[in-house]
Inverse folding.
């Protein structure tokens, strides 16, 4: 074995470090922009978004666009560059819209392309709506193997209603089972898109991506803005930075802004000094000025999460302006209680929820209290996946462990006319079953409805129709997309689909059916409050709001589940499900039995009878005076599985 002197090894080590730094500096200088981004005229700016169904290749196409424009080095091995959240990489989905500014040279002219990668799941449709508010065109991405799916239809009409230029693109044409002709026929039947307009690409290997860039430049118009007008910017996203506070992602609709300007928000009237301006490439690239048509980040020391109101208009202090037309505010579809595992962690959980709610404006937060779980919050979400992702981000990004109760939907109740209701209003919105009024106070009940869109192969039509009927759905239409696929539309109660509808649909169709839904207002219904009683005492935390036709079934399931979860005690526990004073379900949890006669080894039988009588009398007295004490873990298990 050859041994080298330690001094030589140290010199070689220092040389390697120096060489590594030299290579980094050389790469940085080679990749550094030689074009002043702020000097690019409006005519050479394109703002666009990518819309598609889940897993149709949005993030992969975004990766290739970053490579083709030089924002990321080719062959770097990085995937899902715009999916920065840990939950996005683990689940393989996009849950948060991300922006990136790209420089692309075409015909000896440098273009600025502002790309926004949007989510594809129905629960995050608000992110798509917000992204489209800053765009003039979209890429409609469709999988050449799976074809048009439910969210593809929903996203197309979102863009169509905003009068955006739509570039249809078929992805994954290199797959063995790809059938571009079939998918082109679907696009023609559903959206009246001619086959000649459809671009065929493979984002994974980069085939045809250059044609997409050419189409973006040639088909999508430049933003119709005036840089010489007063400054107005639409605040369409924000996030929290530990050192700089709340950062605002804006689309500049007119005028320009520079570092040092004083700005204010139209609705909140708060005044700030602009501390920093930047463009995402995809990392922050500092600039001294943002002009109309551009998308950028404003840092102005916003310290509170309540100051950055999504959809607000930012303008310079002292200028009178008309506010920009924002995007439609989202309405929570699912509500759930969030409580700290221990009340000593309440402040940490509060801070985490406030910071994460700033990054996710679709979440609504209100204080809540439970005698069993303590002080907590009632949060509103757009769906179950939205709820799961939010709680996962709480744990991963802020280390905040929490208890999530079973989700519920908001109900509308019309109260009877009284002096009190005339003052406070007859309409009442209920998100927590505890606040459900007594039947004699109510004139009408209303439950939220949705229009469900299902795209499925025709061999699964029978099971799907049976499922929708079971969930109280009413069929609106059925249309053939091609020879073996059809699209169904149903009016469905939101409460019936929020828990397990999607899972059952995937099971009965072997995963081939896709489901999407949109809000359809409220519909008159016959609702009742399902109360759970333990030995005649009502437990408010376990009550629920159900349709009268489902009360008996749900009541029996609740009683059976409680019998399995509640720990046995020294007394017998009668579990009852009651609706309007009528018992619809009952289970009995037997008491522990202590053998008080074990110490007897003989003698007269009256001694045995006397001990058993004393035991029976003791249990009777205990049942009369003792309250049933349920451990906190029992409530957690029941509320999670409700």
């Amino acid at each position: 074995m050859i041994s080298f002197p330690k001094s030589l090894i140290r010199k070689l080590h220092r040389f390697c470090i120096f060489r590594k730094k030299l290579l980094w500096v050389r790469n940085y200088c080679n990749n550094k922009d030689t074009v002043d981004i702020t000097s690019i005229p409006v005519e050479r700016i394109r703002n666009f978004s990518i819309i598609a169904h889940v897993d149709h290749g949005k993030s992969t196409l975004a990766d290739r666009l970053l490579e083709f424009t030089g924002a990321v080095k080719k062959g770097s091995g990085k995937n899902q560059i715009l999916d920065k959240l840990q939950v996005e990489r683990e689940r393989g989905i996009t849950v948060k819209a991300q922006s990136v500014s790209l420089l692309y040279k075409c015909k000896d002219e440098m273009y600025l392309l502002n790309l926004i990668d949007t989510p594809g799941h129905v629960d995050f449709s608000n992110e798509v709506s917000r992204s489209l508010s800053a765009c003039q065109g979209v890429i409609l991405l469709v999988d050449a193997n799976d074809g048009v799916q439910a969210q593809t239809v929903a996203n197309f009409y979102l863009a169509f209603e905003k009068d955006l230029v739509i570039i249809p693109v078929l992805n994954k044409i290199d797959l063995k089972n790809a059938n571009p002709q079939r998918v082109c026929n679907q696009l023609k039947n559903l959206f009246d898109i001619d086959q000649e307009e459809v671009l065929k690409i493979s984002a994974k290997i980069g085939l045809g991506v250059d044609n997409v860039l050419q189409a973006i430049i040639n088909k999508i118009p430049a933003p119709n803005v005036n840089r010489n007008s007063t400054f107005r910017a639409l605040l369409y996203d924000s996030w929290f930075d530990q050192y700089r506070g709340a950062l605002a992602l804006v689309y500049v609709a007119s005028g320009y802004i520079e570092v040092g300007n004083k700005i204010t928000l139209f609705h909140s009237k708060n005044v700030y000094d602009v501390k920093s301006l930047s463009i995402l490439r995809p990392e922050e690239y500092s600039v001294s000025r943002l002009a109309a048509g551009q998308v950028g980040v404003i840092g102005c020391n916003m310290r509170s999460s309540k100051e950055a109101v999504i959809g607000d208009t930012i303008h310079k202090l002292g200028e009178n302006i008309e506010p920009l037309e924002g995007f439609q505010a989202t309405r929570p579809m699912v509500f759930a209680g969030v409580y700290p595992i221990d009340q000593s962690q309440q402040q940490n959980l509060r801070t985490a929820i406030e910071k994460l709610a700033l990054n996710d404006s679709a979440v609504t937060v209100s204080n809540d209290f439970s005698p069993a779980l303590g002080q907590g919050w009632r949060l509103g979400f757009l769906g179950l996946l939205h709820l799961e992702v939010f709680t996962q981000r709480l744990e991963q990004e802020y280390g905040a462990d929490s208890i999530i109760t079973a989700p519920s939907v908001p109900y509308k109740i019309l109260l009877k006319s009284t002096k009190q209701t005339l003052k406070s209003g007859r309409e009442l919105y209920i998100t927590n079953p505890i606040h459900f009024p007594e039947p004699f106070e109510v004139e009408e009940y209303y439950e939220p409805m949705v229009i469900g869109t299902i795209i499925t192969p025709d061999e699964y039509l029978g099971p799907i129709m049976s499922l929708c009927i079971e969930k109280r759905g009413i069929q609106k239409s059925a249309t053939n997309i091609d020879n073996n696929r059809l699209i169904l539309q149903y009016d469905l109660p939101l409460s019936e689909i929020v828990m397990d509808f999607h899972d059952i649909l995937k099971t009965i169709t072997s995963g081939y059916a896709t489901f999407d839904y949109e809000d359809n207002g409220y519909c008159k219904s016959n609702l009742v409050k399902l109360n759970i009683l333990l030995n005649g005492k009502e437990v408010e935390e376990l009550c629920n709001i159900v349709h009268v036709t489902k009360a008996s079934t749900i009541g029996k399931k609740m009683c059976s589940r409680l019998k399995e979860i509640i720990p046995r005690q020294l007394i017998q526990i009668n579990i009852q499900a009651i609706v309007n004073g009528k018992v619809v379900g009952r289970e009995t949890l037997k008491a522990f039995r202590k053998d008080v006669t074990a110490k007897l080894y003989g003698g007269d039988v009256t001694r045995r009878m006397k001990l058993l009588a004393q035991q029976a009398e003791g249990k009777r007295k205990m049942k009369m005076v003792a309250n049933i004490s349920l451990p906190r873990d029992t409530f957690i298990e029941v509320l999670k599985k409700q």
Summary: Confidence is low (pLDDT under 50) at residues 20-34.
